[in-house]
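Dear colleagues,

I hope this message finds you well. In preparation for our joint manuscript, I am sending the ABC transporter ATP-binding protein (Hymenobacter jeollabukensis) sequence together with its predicted structure, so that both groups work from identical material. I would be grateful if you could confirm receipt.
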Amino acid sequence: MLQLRDIEKVYQTDTIETVALNRVNLTINKGEFVSIMGPSGCGKSTLLSLMGLLDEPTGGVIEIDGRAVTSYSDKELARVRNHKIGFIFQSFHLINDLSVLDNVELPLLYRAGLSSKERRQRAQQALERVGLSARTRHFPSQLSGGQRQRVAIARALAGAPEIILADEPTGNLDSVMGEEIMELLLSLNRDQGTTVVMVTHDENMAHKTERLIRFFDGSQVS
Ligand code: ADP
Ligand code: ADP
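The corresponding structure tokens are as follows:
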């Protein structure tokens, strides 16, 4: 479903040029759970942001469902970003003065064709899926780290994405909560066929996934 061909990403600042990714070739198939490991600075976050169409490569081609992303109009791109892709981050990225339910509902506001009732329903279903239907009126500060990450996962799920891109989703959690979040991601992949690409520093988590890709210095090494 997602193909990277000869991807290069060079960051250019006034005086320095950083090669973050160097000739990366990678295919993510529908329904896969792939983990990506590698030392800090090797290009993992850059890779995820390119996969999520949040940034553009300086070389190479990204294809989604066999079609080069460069051939999409801005409108089509926005649609793919909103409908196909869900993001989860290490630091949750929740809005602290919105309730759990409002946090989950927020991205749906940018979706054409959903009534407010449908938005609410979808958000509630997503919270049920992550086991948080009893916490919809809480605020993020009233939740544990693991629960906050569940809210973030529900927010991604509410959009019914085909692929979830997770940047160290368990990085800020203790091992018990980390395990729980990992189990949740595994079950989404197994039961709903959601494709997951996860960056992690945790070998234990990575070995639970069906494919492990290692990066070093901007390139895939295994
Ligand atoms: P990782 O996620 O593996 O830690 P990153 O993708 O964040 O690696 O970074 C890869 C390299 O690109 C690093 O050398 C980093 O400093 C550099 N880099 C990342 N983002 C930028 C940016 N916006 N501008 C300049 N350099 C960047
Ligand atoms: P994480 O490792 O949690 O993914 P990072 O600290 O690597 O986060 O990067 C956070 C943000 O800062 C990213 O969006 C990345 O593109 C940007 N960034 C990373 N390194 C640099 C850099 N050297 N110069 C400018 N921006 C950078």
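For the figure legend, we might mention the following. Helices lie at 44-51, 74-84, 100-105, 116-129, 145-158, 175-192, 203-206. Residues 175-192 form the longest helix (18 residues).

With kind regards,
E.M.
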